[in-house]
Amino acid sequence: MSLVVVGSMAFDALETPFGKTDKIIGGAATYIAWSASNFTQTIKQISVVGGDFPQEELDALAARGVELEGVQIKKDEKTFFWSGRYHMDMNTRDTLETQLNVLADFKPVVPDSYQDCEFLMLGNLVPAVQLSVIDQLKNRPKLIVMDTMNFWMDTCMEDLQKVISKVDVLLVNDGEARQLSGEYSLVKAAKKIMATGPKYLIIKKGEHGALLFNADQVFFAPALPLEEVFDPTGAGDTFAGGFMGHLAKTKDISFNNMKTAIIIGSAMASYCVEKFGLERLKEIGKQEIDARLDEFVQLVNFDIELG
Amino acid sequence: MSLVVVGSMAFDALETPFGKTDKIIGGAATYIAWSASNFTQTIKQISVVGGDFPQEELDALAARGVELEGVQIKKDEKTFFWSGRYHMDMNTRDTLETQLNVLADFKPVVPDSYQDCEFLMLGNLVPAVQLSVIDQLKNRPKLIVMDTMNFWMDTCMEDLQKVISKVDVLLVNDGEARQLSGEYSLVKAAKKIMATGPKYLIIKKGEHGALLFNADQVFFAPALPLEEVFDPTGAGDTFAGGFMGHLAKTKDISFNNMKTAIIIGSAMASYCVEKFGLERLKEIGKQEIDARLDEFVQLVNFDIELG
User: Fold this and answer.
1) In sequence order, which residues have a C-beta less than 8 Å from that of residue B88 and are 6 or more positions away?
2) Looking at beta carbons, which residues of chain A come within 8 Å of B175?
3) For residue A211, how many C-alpha atoms fall within 13 Å in the half-sphere facing its CB?
4) Which of A188, A220, A229 shows the shortest C-beta gap to B300?
5) Which residues have C-beta within 8 Å of that of residue B195, sequence separation ≥ 6?
6) Interface touch B303/A209, C-beta < 8 Å
7) How large is the ipTM?
8) In angstroms, rounded to a whole number, what is the distance separating the alpha carbons of residues B305 and B212?
9) Contact call for residues A91 and A230 (beta carbons, < 8 A)
10) Residue B92, pLDDT score
11) Which residues contact B104 (CB under 8 A, 6 or more apart)?
């Protein structure tokens, strides 16, 4: 039984108010796998890279227990590249350059050894690619979680709606929830979106935390107030990785356990943003994660007497 | 021993995406008193109104246990009037009209009977007026809480800083915390602001909740996700009233009790925004408040096992 992760593996070049990087390793599936591998060791990756993707990065993932049979390596092509600049609020960014490269005609192939998929994490990617992976799985996974972004709402809403109708948990940010539903109120947006398929909706609000909706229940997870958000790239993917890693580890997909999983995802994301790219995620282990989880407990813990 | 509240009592005319009102009753001190009177009955009001302010509104406050000896009634003048229009996000608004009227030369006079002031709530008002009230009290209150706004930062920063240096708890929103400190990071902003006097800082983030800072501690209170924010006018004052009402009731000014007080303030604010003006606040009682507090407990409650 495994956690299958689908998503980009990429090069990013980033500019933030605090500094800039040359090409560094990025990609949704990379962040998800690094984050999730703190909690579960049966991660199976589906992605595509070019011949320019460093072998040592693949080796580092393999050493974390991430299987890479489903990662296509196109020796004569180049890895997906994205370059962006963040504004002071770190919630808005401009894309400076996008080179799709190997992603332009990515046809995911699910290896036979991945057919034991119990948890499927669809990282942000072309909806048709996400759908293809669902279709290739012979047994419906216990839980399908999907991330996406406004770009697909603008360019291929029909495909996107098709995938959304097949997943259990959808992850979007507040702006995307509003765009997808046409509702400004996030409570109304959540109801409309859940009516199209997903039983659970997670609305990520960056520095303002995240909301988990399920039927008439709602849970709010705060973001840790940080002195400095150094680089928000990958924070959403890292959140998804922690969320999914915890669920795959515990095999408990109740609303109650999803609340815990969201706090764990938030803790992972709070580390991610402390340095550029994957740097901080590669440094932390169980001790750091537990310390941060304790900070979250302190952050929201209060006593109230009713009646 | 009493809770003294200083602030405006006013007429508001409001436009929101959901409707508009003619002149209705508003003002920081009005909202604070209505909210706080759910928790403590020794509220003493300091404000000023014109001859046009309805006697039945004063009577309604008196019936809630609010003493009005410190409310000046200038029979031949008009009550402060503010008219504003809210944008779709309800966090931004345009002022359409401001008539200072009686507020233009308001000189607060603290009655002798208010000298038992144990808790002082300085609602948003000209800093010089707030300062005058502090100066007129012969004994320093156990706790001074101050609300303010960006307008005073733009127009009389020196006076404002003087008041801030004398209070225990400062309430501002996120934009104001950034403006006051010159720091974008709210954690850095909080440290800088607390270094100028207040031991506690509450940063209100509207629909994104509120943060309470004290030395190296931080607490995060969510806002309840609502189907509709009908009218946000007075939400901050209502929050302050619930916060201060609970502290005055319990007489416990520990960080831990302030966390509870913030949740109570948030619950009160979540009712305030459901209808125009004071309408909803006038309808609710202990039963509604307890029900909403329970919703807050459910909203943030999670289990996590460390180690």
Assistant:
1) A184, B17
2) none
3) 28
4) A220
5) none
6) no
7) 0.87
8) 25
9) no
10) 76
11) none
Residue A155: CATH number of its domain? 3.40.1190.20
Distance CA A88, CA A39 (A): 33
Number of domains composing chain A: 1
Kindly list the residues from chain B whose CB atom is less than 8 angstroms away from the CB atom of residue A306: 290, 293-294
> B253 to chain A, minimum CA–CA distance in Å?
14
Residue B48 placed within a domain: yes
Is B98 part of a structural domain of the chain? yes
Extract the residue ranges of chain A whose pLDDT is less than 70.
90-91, 306-307
Helix/strand/coil percentages in chain A, nearest 5: 40, 25, 35
Are B2 and B41 contacting, i.e. CB atoms less than 8 angstroms apart? no
Two tokens at B65?
């246990």
Q: What is the residue range of B86's domain?
A: 2-300
A114: Cβ–Cβ under 8 A, 6 or more apart, which residues?
A2, A4, A44, A46, A69, A70, A137
**Residue B300: closest C-alpha in chain A:** A220
Do the beta carbons of residue B34 and residue B285 sit within 8 Å?
A: no
Q: Specify if A307 maps to a domain.
A: no
Chain B residues 256-295 with CB within 8 Å of chain A: 256, 259-260, 262-264, 290, 293-294
The answer to whether residue B122 sits within a structural domain is: yes
Are A226 and B300 within 8 A, CB to CB? no
- The token duo for B156 is 């009389």
Going from the first residue of chain B to its last (307 residues), give the mean pLDDT of each consecutive group of 10, the final group possibly shorter: 96 91 96 98 96 98 97 98 85 87 96 98 97 98 97 95 98 95 95 98 93 96 88 94 98 96 96 95 97 94 77
Q: How far apart are CA B221 and CA B232, in angstroms?
A: 18
pTM higher than the cut 0.95: no
* Strand bridging mode A24-26 / A10-16: antiparallel
**Nearest chain B residue to A255, by CA:** B302
